[in-house]
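FORM 12-B: Structure-to-Sequence Request
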């Protein structure tokens, strides 16, 4: 499968800059993968498509305020620092991206906040934009973390072309976010409200949770025409026994297992036994799913409408069928669905 097959013309005005007023009132396109039939609904209508003992699997990762702005010593030039992951708690070491990178060299110091509240030293180059920073902070760890995150802002993707607003702190996060570690939100899960979760629960639908700490690799462009040569960034995943039992029991009973989002799909498909069942796992995945691909765990999927040429869109095409999904995207553009992180949703059954 070639990269150019995933190109389509997306009018920029269809990229959602803000979430729907109510989480569960985005639009929902339902795609029947066997027939290609399309239905137009509202997200909370989702409940009509699920029954007692079906399982929905959510990603409970929590986004942290990963984008900071600092100044370089001596020149005072503004530098954007994007926190990726903590490397060493005791030494306050972080893996980051810097922009503009050409100005940032090993040994440079960066100052953050009023009165230079926080100082960091560049101690290594990791990639063209990647650096390792050591934050120079004498106080206890909890105080350091509070200071660091207090200086950060919600890491909206760059294609949401506006300044971060106070509502983003809550809305760029799912209501079931628990485990801090993501620099991007698992967007399909953001459509679920507490009211909808309660209604699903009353109907007998079971919920399972896994964790994938979403990295910036989600937005990395694919630079090769031959998709077999693309390498995904590794992301940390956790699949615990409780989720495994719920998913495998549902499969055994021939009930539906629905992956809520591409991150859940990657997580589940990264730990499959030879029998096609889910296995507990703690570690890293760099699984890249694109057509053709045989799925083993979920038989349903909820996802947003993704940008052209993205690895997320490729996975959706693998699950829903390339021709079906491309036709659905064409329909979504015609019907003015909202695309991207804060956009509308699709249920593939």
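FORM 12-B RESPONSE
SEQUENCE OUT:
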């Amino acid at each position: 499968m070639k990269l150019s097959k995933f190109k389509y013309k997306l009018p920029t005005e269809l990229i959602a800059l803000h979430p729907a007023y109510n989480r569960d009132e985005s639009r929902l396109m339902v795609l029947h993968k066997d027939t290609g039939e399309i239905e137009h609904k509202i997200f909370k209508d989702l409940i009509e498509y699920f029954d007692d003992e079906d399982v929905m699997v959510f990603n409970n990762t929590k986004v942290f305020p990963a984008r900071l702005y600092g100044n370089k010593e001596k020149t005072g030039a503004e530098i954007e620092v994007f926190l990726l992951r903590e490397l060493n708690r005791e030494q306050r070491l972080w893996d980051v991206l810097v922009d503009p990178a050409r100005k940032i060299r090993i040994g440079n110091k960066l100052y953050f906040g009023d009165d230079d509240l926080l100082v960091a030293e560049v101690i290594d180059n990791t990639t063209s934009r990647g650096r390792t920073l050591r934050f120079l902070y004498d106080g206890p760890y909890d105080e350091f973390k509070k200071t660091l995150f207090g200086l950060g802002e919600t890491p909206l993707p760059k294609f949401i072309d506006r300044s971060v607003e106070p509502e983003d702190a809550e809305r760029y996060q799912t209501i079931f976010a628990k485990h801090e570690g993501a620099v991007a939100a698992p967007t399909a899960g953001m459509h679920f409200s507490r009211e909808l979760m309660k209604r699903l629960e009353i109907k007998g639908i079971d919920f399972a949770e896994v964790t994938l700490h979403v990295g910036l690799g989600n937005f990395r462009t694919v630079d090769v025409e031959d998709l077999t040569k693309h390498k995904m960034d590794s992301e940390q995943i956790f699949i615990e026994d409780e989720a495994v039992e719920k998913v495998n029991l549902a499969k055994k009973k021939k009930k539906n297992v629905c992956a809520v989002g591409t991150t859940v799909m990657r997580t589940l498909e990264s730990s499959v036994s030879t029998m096609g069942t889910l296995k507990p796992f703690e570690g890293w995945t760099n699984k890249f799913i694109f057509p053709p691909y045989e799925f083993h765990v979920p038989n349903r999927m909820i996802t947003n409408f993704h940008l052209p040429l993205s690895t997320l869109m490729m996975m959706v095409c693998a699950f829903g069928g390339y021709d079906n999904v491309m036709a659905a995207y064409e329909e979504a553009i015609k019907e003015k669905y909202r695309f991207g992180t804060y956009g509308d949703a699709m249920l593939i059954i």
